[in-house]
Please model this.
Amino acid sequence: MTPAEREPRLVFGEVAERYDRARPTYPGELVGDVAHVLGLPAWARVLEIGSGTGKATVLWADAGYEVVCLEPSEEMAAVARANLAGHENVVIETVGLEDWPIEPEAFDLVTAAQAWHWIPAEVAMPTAHAALRPGGGVALIWNWESERPHALEPEFDEAYGTIAPTLMKEPLKERIGASIMEQLDESPLFGPVTVRRYPWEKTFTAAAYVDLLSTHSSHRMLDDEASTRLHDAITAIIDGNGGALTISYVTEVQIAARA
Model:
């Protein structure tokens, strides 16, 4: 399959086990905060969209909720099933939201972690609204890079500019986060948006950081030569600056009740 024929939303499945290893998880306290804001019952039924390898799923499952996961990648779903094998309260369906036969008013919460932007806009809000019971709501979860160490940023920018200039765009938060907030704010299907944020940081070796980059859809869509050159350059930069890179993150949860 040529790069032009690959769907960016499905390329994560090419490296499903690496994705599971390299991608960060989410703070456990967000579950209680979402439950408080929306008034979720203890027996809540959750619909998770684009559940991937189950990094957020396990938080809802461990809270005792019944979770129905929609994941269009067979490879990602297979890893999730292995990770969640001990959770009888989790069902994983290999399907995207746009192809899912809606269960009307059957869920207390619709959630997505790093996945809402892959759903066609004309599908996302109406389908989520239709799936929710009165009194339910949505919780959209994101891990944003809040700050890149200034000492390495110019070298990273030079590497990207030379090897992969198409990736030198606005940060994900500015490209996606703002538009999703606008969707929620402007949708008559949902009420006012409540935002919760959780700052944290992680230190990577060069190999671990390149592993992480190689799970991003933008990097996966590069041709093999450009990908190798870029990742080699990033490795050299980190190794040339002490061999470690600390990234400051903020996990952001956008919460809105069904109108």
